[in-house]
């Protein structure tokens, strides 16, 4: 399912116009991103938790030259599924 399919399904289920549903979905995703930028966790009980994780620097290889390089530390988004979400997928 892509974003447009999600918007269409939510609009059909709720009876809200697709244009309004698109605005709601886009704003919800924007708020998750903004919270993560502020290093806040976004916890949706039963669904899961979005958070920022620190990835340590590590060594790697340049595939063209085979030279060892250092990959710098970085921040990456992470998601941990909630129990209700895990149980729904198992069934």
TrEMBL record:
GO biological process: chromosome condensation; DNA replication initiation; gene expression
Highest taxon of the lineage: Bacteria
InterPro entries from the UniProt entry: Hist_DNA-bd, Histone-like_DNA-bd_CS, IHF-like_DNA-bd_dom_sf
SUPFAM superfamilies xrefs: IHF-like DNA-binding proteins
CDD domains: HU
Molecular function GO terms recorded: DNA binding; identical protein binding; structural constituent of chromatin
GO CC term, one of those recorded: HU-DNA complex
Keywords recorded for this protein, A-Z: DNA condensation, DNA-binding
UniProt cross-references to Gene3D superfamilies, sorted A to Z: IHF-like DNA-binding proteins
Pfam families, sorted: Bac_DNA_binding
UniProt-listed PROSITE patterns: HISTONE_LIKE
Family of the protein in this entry: Belongs to the bacterial histone-like protein family.
Protein name: DNA-binding protein
Organism: Sporolactobacillus inulinus CASD
